[in-house]
Amino acid sequence: MPQQGILLVVSGPSGTGKGTICRELLRSNPQLKYSISATTRQPRTGEADGVNYLFVAKDHFQTMIENDDLLEWAEVYGNFYGTPRHYVLEQLKNGYDVVLEIDTQGAMKIKEKFPEGVYIYIIPPSLDELADRIHKRGTDSLEVIKKRLHCASAELAQAHNYHYIVVNDQVAAAVQRVETIIAAEKHRAERNTDLIDSLCQARCN
Amino acid sequence: MPQQGILLVVSGPSGTGKGTICRELLRSNPQLKYSISATTRQPRTGEADGVNYLFVAKDHFQTMIENDDLLEWAEVYGNFYGTPRHYVLEQLKNGYDVVLEIDTQGAMKIKEKFPEGVYIYIIPPSLDELADRIHKRGTDSLEVIKKRLHCASAELAQAHNYHYIVVNDQVAAAVQRVETIIAAEKHRAERNTDLIDSLCQARCN
Questions:
Q1: What are the φ and ψ backbone dihedral angles of A37, each rounded to 5 degrees?
Q2: By the CB < 8 Å criterion, does B76 face chain A?
Q3: Which tens digit of pLDDT belongs to each residue from A120-151?
Q4: Which of A24, A95, B152, B189 shows a CA-CA span of 20 to 30 A to B106?
Q5: Cα nearest neighbour of B198 on chain A
Q6: Neighbours of B136 (CB within 10 A)
């Protein structure tokens, strides 16, 4: 039986590049699976069901909540978003690691149910750098950038609730840091109780 | 100011090769320092004061105990052994990591005083392999080997008190695993509170 996989929960302020890091991680680590969120919102152009999101009807989402089929869920501007429990647990059981990119609120809800996950908070090298990045994206007005930065400051206070802090100064370096964390976590004592038990039992027989 | 170093405490059953792993680690990682034990026993041929041990008189050792100058100490066959606190803390403050190879009893005493250390337990791939290694060393009689293996089984039950379990199947691979653990631990949130604070403060000013 393979060692149970690791649930990797990744958060960070908007504009930190956590999405890019997760995509790079998934590209170069075939043992890593992406946890797809379920949502009641309409698909945007180019989004495919089962790839970007599981697009479900509101009453279906309601049933998922009632059946405790979601590790966490939230309502944002009238749309529902949630993390289907079954997919995550199935992958972990089969020895795959699962990466979940989610905001701090969702992450903390999952941490309550799933403390054995690995919680990583991505930070920019500085807030000036973050302002630069959001500015260069060119999608936000100055007013929105200011608001985002204000939120970032507040968000950063959540960092101490995570297990690890990874600075995203260079994407490749940040990806390697996360890979190092995953590799180290495989050796955690609590993930290797079977190994110790089997060593001890082999002697008793 | 450099990030505070990490105290790395390494234990494992006799014959697991933890000594070899620590030597290799120190050889290839200049940021890693070896914690030298103080002892009241006589130096053996080839042992140098300040290199293998700090050789001290019994009354000096007694004073160290009274002054709480030792992170842990023990009496073995009438000789005293202990870990001088000052050297370890000084290195950590200067950003060096310190490796301490010690038995499970000593390790657990240190863990009480120093929970922020990283506690690694080295295990053999199997107890048969361990028996083979002890046998090949050729220094022990069959009777002693049996006793060592019996102790190993009992010792292995301590493994769950450590943070990490590292299998020593190949020395180079085991050394790399420990290096990965050190690298990952540098990103632990509790070791990076200053980083978060300075990011937040930079914004407030």
A1: -80, 150
A2: no
A3: 999 998 878 877 877 777 777 778 777 777 77
A4: B189
A5: A126
A6: 9
H-run or E-run covering B36: none
Give the span between the Cα atoms of B63 and B106, in whole angstroms.
19
Query: Are the Cβ atoms of B200 and A156 closer than 8 angstroms?
Result: yes
| The token pair that represents A119 in the structure block | 């919680």
Q: Both tokens of residue A153?
A: 């400051």
Cα separation, A195 vs A62, in Å, equals 41
Query: Cβ of B156 and A196 within 8 Å?
Result: yes
Determine which helix (DSSP H) or strand (DSSP E) holds B168, and give its type and residue range: none
**Degrees, nearest 5: CA angle A26-A176-A125:** 110
Q: CA B66 to CA B99: how far, in whole Å? A: 25
Residue A191's contacts (CB-CB under 8 Å, 6 or more residues apart) are A3, A4, A6, A116, A185
> pLDDT truncated to tens, each residue of chain B (205 aa)?
678 999 999 999 888 899 999 999 999 999 999 999 999 999 999 999 988 899 999 999 999 999 999 999 999 889 999 999 999 999 999 999 999 999 999 999 999 999 999 999 999 988 788 778 777 777 777 787 777 777 777 788 889 999 999 999 999 999 999 999 999 999 999 999 988 888 877 654 4
A183 near B CB under 8 A:
yes
pLDDT of residue A205: 43
Instruction: Enter the DSSP assignment of B49.
Output: B
Q: Which domains does chain A have, with CATH numbers?
A: 7-35+97-204 (3.40.50.300)
Q: How many CB pairs lie under 8 A apart between chains A and B?
A: 106
